[in-house]
Write a structure and sequence with these properties.
mainly alpha; 5 strands; globular; 219 residues; 3-stranded parallel sheet; 42% helix; 10% strand; single chain; disordered C terminus
């Protein structure tokens, strides 16, 4: 049995920052802590092997780091001119900061690598800052990015399906819906246009907006 723990040290997608290895240690469960994408694969296989050999549970700590998007494993799966990417440019410290107090987030380097690998359809927006200023919490950065990518025509799904999924999930439905619509707005007008907007609910973007090409006629 391999137990995966999705920890969020910086509270990027959670209301409260948390880490779970203390609970695992208290329960006598060994913890694996991968530092990059390749180690997720390697440690996952090791974890399964350890569990099968011992008959006990093994835990693996999974932490989201923005830098993993520029790992060789991830970049090898992109196709220049084919892959589309909406990327949160908000910097979140990684586990390397704990080991090296002089560590600096390689934002410019990571962005250059992604643009070189993906091509023109690679958009960077500071979803953390937008979610915080518009909705009061960075936890809404993900649905904001989702709306941004959908408005760009990069998701083969109807908006009604995505909004229904938010409703079925039943968690902060109103705020998550607003975040989705704000993401659509930013995709059309840019984050600079938000300086003229009033913080709060945003009316649903019209399908007649000129930024929407013929491929975005899915309803």
């Amino acid at each position: 049995m391999l137990v995966l723990a999705g920890d969020d040290h910086a509270a990027k997608s959670s209301s409260v920052a948390h880490q779970s290895e203390h609970a695992f240690i208290a329960a006598g469960i060994p913890v694996l802590y991968p530092a990059n994408v390749q180690e997720y694969l390697d440690y996952g296989l090791h974890g399964w092997a350890m569990s099968r050999y011992s008959g006990l549970w093994v835990a693996m700590k999974c932490v989201t780091d923005a830098i993993v998007s520029t790992s060789n494993d991830v970049l090898s799966r992109t196709q220049h001119g084919v892959t589309r990417a909406a990327i949160n440019s908000g910097a979140t410290p990684t586990a390397d900061f704990v080991k090296n107090p002089h560590w600096v987030f390689p934002g410019a380097e990571s962005e250059a690598q992604l643009r070189a690998s993906i091509g023109e359809r690679c958009e960077f927006i500071d979803a953390n800052a937008l979610a915080l200023s518009l909705l009061g919490d960075t936890i809404y950065s993900n649905p904001l990015l989702l709306g941004f990518a959908w408005q760009k025509g990069w998701l083969p799904l109807a908006s009604a399906s995505l909004l229904q999924a938010i409703e079925i999930n039943g968690v902060s439905v109103e705020k998550n819906t607003q975040a989705f619509n704000w993401g659509r707005y930013v995709a059309c007008h840019g984050s600079e246009a938000l300086q003229r907007c009033v913080v709060g609910p945003l009316p649903l973007c019209s399908r007649s907006l000129r930024c929407i090409g013929p491929r975005r006629l899915i309803r």
